[in-house]
Design brief:
Order of helices and strands: EHEHEHEEHH
Radius of gyration: 14 Å
Shape: globular
Number of helices: 5
Structural class: alpha/beta
CATH topology: Rossmann fold
Strand order of the largest sheet: 3-4-5
Number of strands: 5
Oligomer: single chain
Strand content: 5-15%
Helix content: 25-40%
Number of domains: 1
CATH superfamily: HAD superfamily/HAD-like
CATH architecture: 3-Layer(aba) Sandwich
Length: 124
């Protein structure tokens, strides 16, 4: 499994943001607004992330916390898991294959989540 960021932040802003949440070590590749002509909901940044991961959209899952993430991923052919912690409700996140309160909620339900098969395969 390859983890790639697809952030609308500038490249210079992205690394410090990943450090703040202590997730820099988890990320295999990074894409930022510097890698895209247009911002979400345009799928440019998602397409750039797919190229970095060397996968097609149907083999990827995106995690996002805005309707723009869901729309951009859908337009790129990527399924989305959405988080409510971005301040949006279920109706706004419509189109996501699953919606959780935040990362903690997804982790608590990981074995029954859409990521269960991917995490099982990654452990093998």
């Amino acid at each position: 499994m390859t983890l790639v960021t697809a952030s609308s932040a500038k490249a210079g802003e992205l690394r410090p943001l990943l450090r703040v949440v202590a997730s820099e070590w988890l990320i295999d590749e990074q894409t930022s607004s510097d890698d895209a002509d247009s911002s979400k909901p345009d799928p440019d940044i998602i397409v750039a992330a797919l190229k970095r991961a060397r996968v097609v959209g149907s083999d990827a899952v995106m995690v996002g916390d805005t309707p723009y993430d869901v729309e951009a991923a859908t337009r790129a052919g990527v399924r989305t898991i959405a988080f409510r912690c971005g301040g949006w409700g279920d109706r706004d996140l419509r189109g996501a294959i699953a919606i959780y309160d935040g990362p903690w909620d997804l982790l608590a339900h990981l074995d029954s989540s859409p990521l269960a098969v991917a995490t099982h395969l990654a452990r093998e």
